[in-house]
Specification:
By secondary structure, this protein is an alpha/beta fold. The chain folds into 2 domains: 47 residues, Uridine Diphospho-n-acetylenolpyruvylglucosamine Reductase, domain 2, CATH 3.30.43.10; 96 residues, 2-Layer Sandwich (Uridine Diphospho-n-acetylenolpyruvylglucosamine Reductase, domain 3), CATH 3.30.465.10. 38% of the residues lie in helices and 18% in strands. It has 9 helices and 9 strands. It is globular. The two termini are 25 Å apart.
Length: 152
């Protein structure tokens, strides 16, 4: 791995403020850490979102299911709201990886990685979902721009 500055903010505002230079935001860290270990990826700064509680959780807004970026695959699979409103999404989340991956990996990390072989990118496209960032809302069809590429 390369050397990097590591930060672990505790609020979304602090995480947004850390976006300077070549920063990356690992969520569960399942993909970026492995890429860094293999020297396929490098960044000057890692801003670990694991301490940002406001990015975790699932709630209903009317008939829409809202899933926070730092919500784990296991939490999506176990959510009564998701199981009721979108049972296929709960099933998808419950089939990702193994228990360790489901308990560490996050929906936000999977979507942000834009891996075409991952489950969530296909899921959010199929559902016609909207991806909300700290700056705007983007339709899933417009969010992904290529292999491992997305709008920022």
């Amino acid at each position: 791995m390369y050397t990097f500055d590591y930060q672990r903010p505790t609020s979304a505002a602090a995480a947004a403020a850390a976006l300077q230079g070549d920063a990356r935001y690992p969520a569960g860290g399942q993909s970026p850490v492995q890429a860094m270990k293999l020297r396929l990826s490098a960044s000057e700064r890692l801003v670990d979102l694991g301490g940002v509680a406001e990015l975790k959780g699932i709630c209903m807004e009317g008939s829409n299911v809202v899933v926070g970026a730092m919500t784990t695959h296991a939490a999506v699979a176990a959510s009564a709201d998701v199981r009721k409103a979108i049972p296929a999404l709960a099933e998808l989340a419950g089939g990702i990886g193994d228990p360790m991956v489901r308990n560490m990996g996050t929906i936000g990390g999977s979507i942000a990685n834009a891996d075409p072989a991952a489950c969530y990118p296909a899921g959010v496209l199929g559902l016609g979902a909207t991806i909300k960032t700290n700056q705007r809302s983007i339709a899933a069809d417009d969010f992904f721009t290529g292999l491992y590429e997305r709008r920022r």
